[in-house]
Structures are given as structure tokens and as C-alpha cells.
Amino acid sequence: MSKSAIFSLILVILFSFSCTKTGKNSASMAPSTSQAQKVVLVIHGGAGTIKKENMTDEREKAYRNKLSEALQAGYEILKNGGESCEAVIKTINVMEDSPLFNAGKGAVFTADEENELDASIMRGSDRNAGSVAGVRTIKNPIDAAFEVMENSVHVMLTGTGAEEFAEGQGMEIVDPDYFKTDWRLEQLRARKEYGTVGAVALDDNGNLCAGTSTGGMTNKKWGRVGDAPIIGAGTYCDNATAGISATGHGEFFIRSVSAYEVSALMKYKGYTVDEAATASIDQTADLGGTGGLIALDKDGNVSMPFSSAGMYRGYVTENGEIVVRIYKGE
């Protein structure tokens, strides 16, 4: 074999190895913007059967505008020297208050035609965390999760206990009817899928924070709790690696400990954030679960892999550039 042929073969082998390590979902997920511009905030608004042919122009515009509004709300805090957890909360609040997303006002219905909400938050500097699950009267569950983290000896509170705690902390309490929307009731009767919102922020002090909020899975029964309020499954954050928020079929994300898996691959195997995030989603998909996640590392590199047809997602750089995407291939 000639020297040129041997050299060509070596290049092919190296390229193949690189593609294998990067993973099958990463190519269409990595941001196209130059990573010289550090990302300071990344969000998702749920993953599922999201295809352009099923979306009206008006509805697509509404989603893109609301995702941009959420990113801008968090960016304003970070731009002015605010903390990453404050940015995460304010960003998620925008999506919780919108009926477009399965969190807060737009929460899906249980089999009993009620709304039950979950949320979690985790800080990367000390790996402190808080979550609430199965709540029905807390207007913004992500705020309650933060209060659990800051003002409770516990990590997770559920149901009426979480609601009593939140009320005692001055959280806004609403009638359960506040969360009900006709669109979500129609989805229940059609038995459509799930969705979640999440955000990860990196502040000027180098501190990461990740948060997730959801109404759970449509038609859920028997007090079902998904991955969103479970630290390590739906949310994880460590300043040494990355902040992660997941969305999708929660049972599979719990079984594969998807959010923590990203951090572990970075810490113990030296993966980049994109390699680790993609590998985690591939693992969950191999079990049979579809969905996606967002991950932001300590250097401002972002990854947004998903195995579903689409995922509402976006990020903002330190210079204020906002990027919003919905469909696969964007």
C-alpha cells in the first residue's frame, strides 16, 4: 500500500472515531453561533412531536416570541450582575405564566382533569437543591422550589405539605382553576404527550444554576411524579461541569439519571458538554424514552440535544444575541 493510501486510511479512522464519540444526535443540535461568544443562558420549552407541518404561522410566532421574552428576562438580570438562580427563576416564570407551555398556567391535565405541577432548582456552587411535586395551588412552582432550597432542611416537598410551606414563605397561592385551559383539556381528551420548561444560567461570578418546571404528563394517574422535580434525573448542576435541565418521557430520564449523567461523563471521562449531553440523550433513547435536554458548562458552551421530532429551545450570549429554535435541523 502506498504512503498516500495509508495516510488517507488513517484520516478515515480518526474521523470515524470522532463521529462515534460525538454521538448520533449531536450534529443537528450544536449551536451554529461562534462559541467565542460565551452563552450565559439556555432554555427549553418542552420536547415532543413538534413539526412545522403541524404548526400554524401564528402559533409558531407566538412560541418564538415567548421564548425570546423568557431569554431576555433572564439576560437582563445577568447583564446587570445578578445571580444565576435569580435569572433562572425569572426566565422560567415567563414560561410558567404563559399558556403555551406545560408549566404553570399551561399545565396539562391528569386523568382526573386536575392540574398537578412539579419543579426543581439546583445551584452549582454548593450543589444545594430544592423541589416541589404534585402541587395544585402554587402559581409559580419554580419559586417554591427555590424557597425549599433556601429555607428548608429538605430537598423535596410534595402535595399539600409543599403548598403549606410555600404559603408560609409568602408565595402567591391561586385557585386550582387558574391553571386550567381549554387547549390542555382538549389534549387530555386526545391523550397527547408531555412537555416541560427549563433554564440554565451562568453569572458573572462563574456560578451555574439550573431549574425545571412542568405540569407533568397528560392523563397521568395515581400520583405519578416524573423526572422534573428529581435532582439528577430532570435537573442537575455543578460548577465544576455544567448545569442541566431535561424534558421528555420522565420515567426513562429517571431510570437513566439523565441530568447527572451529563455531569458525570464530563467529570470522570473528560467529555465536552456536547459529547456528554448527546451521550445521555442517546442512552435514554436506547431505553425507549424520547425527549431532550439543555446543558451549559462553566465556560459558557451550550448543548441542546433531543431525540424527539422537535424541541422548543434557545439561548442568549454574553453580548445579548438571542437564538430561538423549534424544529429538528435548525
Task: Give a written overview of the molecule.
Helix content is 36%, strand content 22%. It is α+β, with helices and mostly antiparallel strands. It has a single domain, classed as (Glycosyl)asparaginase (Glutamine Phosphoribosylpyrophosphate, subunit 1, domain 1), CATH 3.60.20. Helix 2 (57-79) runs antiparallel to helix 3 (84-96), helix 3 (84-96) runs antiparallel to helix 4 (141-151) and helix 8 (258-269) packs across helix 9 (273-287). Mean pLDDT is 90; it is low at 3-35.
What layout of secondary structure does this protein have?
Elements (H helix, E strand, L loop, with lengths): L2 H20 L16 E10 L8 H23 L4 H13 L20 E7 L5 E7 L5 H11 L4 E3 H10 L13 H9 L6 E6 L5 E7 L20 E3 L4 E7 L1 H6 L2 H12 L3 H15 L3 E7 L4 E2 L6 E8 L4 E6 L3
Helix pairs in contact: 2-3, 3-4, 8-9
